[in-house]
Specification:
- 2 copies of one chain form a homodimer.
- With 722 residues, the first copy, chain A, is α/β, with parallel strands linked by helices.
- Helices cover 27% and strands 21% of the residues of chain A.
- In chain A, strand 12, helix 10 and strand 13 form a beta-alpha-beta unit.
Chain lengths: 722, 722
Amino acid sequence: MLPTDPMTEVARSTRRAARSGRKEPVRLEPITIECVSPELDGGRYPVKRVVGDTLVVGADIFKDGHDLVAARVRYRAPGATAWRSVPMRFEFNPDRWLASFPLDRMGTWEFTVEAWTDRFNSWRSGLEKKVAAKQKVDVELLEGAQIVLSAARNTRSSAYRSSLQQVADRMRDETMSLEARARAALAPELKALVDQHYAPDDLTEYRHVLRVRVDRPAAAFASWYEMFPRSATDDPRVHGTFESAAGMLPRIAELGFDVVYLPPIHPIGRTFRKGKNNTLDPEPDDVGSPWAIGSEEGGHDAVDPKLGTLEDFERFVQRANALGLEVALDFALQCSPDHPWVKEHPDWFHIRPDGTIAYAENPPKKYQDIYPLDFWCEDREGLWTACRDLILFWVARGVKQFRVDNPHTKAFAFWEWCIAEVQRLHPETVFFAEAFTRPKRMKSLAKLGFTQSYTYFTWKNTRWELVPYLEELTQGPAAEYFRGNFFANTPDILHEYLQHGGRPAFRIRLLLAGTLLPLYGIYSGYELCENVPVRAGSEEYLDSEKYQIRVRDFDAPGNINADIRMLNRIRRAHAALQQYTNLAFHTSENEQVLFYRKAGRPVPAVVDGLVIPPSVDTHVTGGRSGNGEEGREVSGDDEPSLVAPPSWSSDADLLVAVNLDPHRIHDSMVHVPIEEMGIDPDEPYVVHDLLTGAHYTWRGSRNYIRLDPQQQPGHVLRVERP
Amino acid sequence: MLPTDPMTEVARSTRRAARSGRKEPVRLEPITIECVSPELDGGRYPVKRVVGDTLVVGADIFKDGHDLVAARVRYRAPGATAWRSVPMRFEFNPDRWLASFPLDRMGTWEFTVEAWTDRFNSWRSGLEKKVAAKQKVDVELLEGAQIVLSAARNTRSSAYRSSLQQVADRMRDETMSLEARARAALAPELKALVDQHYAPDDLTEYRHVLRVRVDRPAAAFASWYEMFPRSATDDPRVHGTFESAAGMLPRIAELGFDVVYLPPIHPIGRTFRKGKNNTLDPEPDDVGSPWAIGSEEGGHDAVDPKLGTLEDFERFVQRANALGLEVALDFALQCSPDHPWVKEHPDWFHIRPDGTIAYAENPPKKYQDIYPLDFWCEDREGLWTACRDLILFWVARGVKQFRVDNPHTKAFAFWEWCIAEVQRLHPETVFFAEAFTRPKRMKSLAKLGFTQSYTYFTWKNTRWELVPYLEELTQGPAAEYFRGNFFANTPDILHEYLQHGGRPAFRIRLLLAGTLLPLYGIYSGYELCENVPVRAGSEEYLDSEKYQIRVRDFDAPGNINADIRMLNRIRRAHAALQQYTNLAFHTSENEQVLFYRKAGRPVPAVVDGLVIPPSVDTHVTGGRSGNGEEGREVSGDDEPSLVAPPSWSSDADLLVAVNLDPHRIHDSMVHVPIEEMGIDPDEPYVVHDLLTGAHYTWRGSRNYIRLDPQQQPGHVLRVERP
């Protein structure tokens, strides 16, 4: 008849239950805490931020009846044992609680929300009203004294304890007038003291501890350059080396890039090696695809002897770093039939009933030069650990960024484990997912830990393709965890827009890539407008560098080095181009002209319909908490921030206009969002084209643009106010 | 250096981890299962349905690589120990898996999603392509034979086992031609056998078991009538009784109501009793407010002796039931100072420092006739159990519906516990939340278990108020759990629209309440268009029945009994008026005329942008599952359905037009959604006004309406096609 004992349920409730996360059909929470943001998939995955960001936390919090509720965000920095807390403030409209705190170091932060009944202020507010209505408040004063005394019992400071006890005594002192006793009770000093020392009796914690992955700023703002070191040569018969490749670094640095990404640098398999243009009958001197990893000379932890030694590679990294460049390596978890693991660990592959190892296939196509790993093999412990150790091996040699080849063909669970493992030890490590697959899969890889992601950008060339895609990336839910990196080309993707659009097409796509998102990149040869496909209708390059050495004269006529140099310089000088969610498209009356604003100052966050100005108070208090168990102060294991916030850059608003048609001049009336930008509709203002140095005087919202793709395919306009 | 052992993590993964729900920083799931719908607050609360509904479950499911994935929904009926399952099918666009199953009994159903790699069909599909490409498939046949043998090992049927073994033998039989072996492997019979008997080796379960609360249909479709039994008298000096009130039941039944709701029927306190019109100085014969519960004569489990005995009440319930009416009681968890609990359990109340019990207050206002209970008192086990037992007490006396007074002033956790407890024993019980508070709190009460909810309907009188509110209720996320019940008036709410709009206002609001939502109600006197407030600007009635007996002549001139009778008859005859989410507003060119469609046939569900036709295959299989631990067949504890689906009613579409202005005639052109309704734009069609019997011939979308509030404030048009 009375099957469940409510007391047992009550005892189970509150924070221990909330922490454990175990399933309870009915949770007994004195306070309701709902709809906490940011929360991704019910807390299953962390959202992403960078060092220097402020995390704004929102929550719906309420309880029965009329008592006041108080709430705070508790949070813990990566590696810290102590929790800190920041009070939440209530916004009547839209009935939401908010707080924020600064994210000042890399790693995975934890946070949650807790709330309690604010008995003192509930009581105090009633007392004020009763005093104003001249009601007798003798019993009220006794009630208030009980709350004050409970605060006194809770404090560790004997000075505060005796202050609180003294006020409580006055409140109960029948020799004093009720008026004097009420005055003592309502003194602001008492409120401050009790607020600080009162221990909630119904502290309720939100049922999830949520996570924020905080990366270094360079993980979210960078210009990438991809190059094959073996092509660093003047003679296609002479294999480039780390040393000759290092000779190209000053040029790349001077163009303003931040990251030099090298396709795999490991020994290349011989068995079923591919010849030039992906043929199956290589000539003896064909160098093969770097993605066919492993030979007698070693596997993923070795370098191709033709490129040099490990020490040569380390010197290459040092040269790059000295020039302000980071080196990113390709991480392609697959093996050529000659990879040492094939002999040492055949059980890490799919072994067929005839004893052979399964090669990759997409029936009826066969890829006999590649053996996929079996991530769910019996010895997965050995395999996963070995794979993680490969990353740690290269991290130890100065590589902090990894472009991961086809992560969607390896176990997702492996990546989640591996990235967490590596970043726990080396939080500065960047994982860049090269997954061109269905959107939900790409998003899932970003959720589970990839720092950056390749995108569909190369295939979005019209306004009708670009606008919704960019809005999805930068304004939709994915903006919390998916950081697109807009490569304008790759060794696999020479889009027909580039094939047919000539030099103007390369300049247009460069400008879009580098101004739409803070992360962008090009693959070597882009600056020379290389645009010949292997055959009509293909996105593969003719004489692809994937299978052969390509010698280039980077100063050849028609190069767009000046565009690249200027773009990267502007990007470094303007905060507007270093942020992800500050993009908004505005009307251009000619659909061939794309017009958008990148806001320079931090954009107000919108949390459930409420606009949170960036100036939100970040009053951080120490780790005080309602019960002794976790009242520890912030302790010494809080290391100082490992990475400084990005250096100063202009916070001006930028307006960008790009002619999307590489073949024709277009003009357009563009609509400047003057109201949002605080520009008076009747006053002229100056827009300064950062690409050319030209200044234009505009007035009102609607202004004229004319773009000749042969001359100037776009404007990057800094708005300069009187 | 190698801090976490991946193998330990792997061993933790799969279903046990998923079930336990405990926090794991990294979950090792071979298959990704995300965005399962319907899911409310990450599975924290159940969604709501009624018996007869089909639950459509959606999920995003994928894994690395190219193997085929298979998935199913596992679900468990209330009280059953066995799980059943239904296969999910994949929709390429929008990349979503779907399944559905029928909800054929009341209670809390559980469901989750599980997925696995479909190794046999992945292999089979490759074999087909290789055979077509005339590739050698000898090793492939050996691989397939291994899968077939694993299915053989898994089956319990020796006949199937030997069939499977025989085919595997043929596939490996080197004396046969490869073609014959491949034919054996590709036989559809083999596919069917393996599909049925194969045991997945990477079965992955979604991390939550989700819940659906399934109510009886009458919980979601009903017409309510509220009456004070003490007013069932011809003489205000003679207190009505259960017996005299039973005399009113035939009239209420004849008007077509389903539920008769009585304000509290318990003994009424004497201390601080309120007089007529809520005065503080009652006369000796004033009857007091029924919400001041408890006197020497008993508390919440007693009846006011003036109304009769408990046996009289039980007879009242029987009379009602015999007329097809259910009786709903008020459940107001508060006590008058004379309530027996005040003496027996003073510790269940707030005891003040002077030893007195705290009365209700909203400083500086005092409500000295009411003592609130302290739901978090030391003896909360005793209090909560006693409160639940009150419900069980009245359930045992035939009451299945409870209108809960001000639930938002009692602990939310108490309600969640109490409702679950009662419904576990008596799943037919309905809890109707009378919470007029901020929207998030009202929604939270619905989430935690309230079957129905009062709404802001009385305050929504213009098109600009009604349309967004109804769209929020019926089309927004709240439609999954919040069932509004549109009371047109209550003893507390006589809106100024009714005060000033005369009889037309009452007819208009009745028509809106009864056609916009399947749940609606009126409070006694509405049918007489009682519209005099206690004073100008108040929503309280003059001579409110809350404080005195009111004698009424229900056949008095100007009554709207005929409207009520007709509306309730139409509601019972049309499925369109029995559903919640089938409402859509359409253009009316005069904003004083509201125009909407209630679709008659089940509306296709929209799951993440995909339209699911109601005919979705509900192929239900037995409880077969991938591992022995839960391969139990559906067992005998599956009781038959307790409640039959609603009886037949017309599934015609209804178009409703209502003149919102009680003072003036309005005409309008209304836009019929002929395309959605499958009406040819060039063919005439007939709309049949169910209120008047008139027929109109319309053509195309735009048609003329003229509504005179004195005559006919609205149309309820059944669309009759040629």
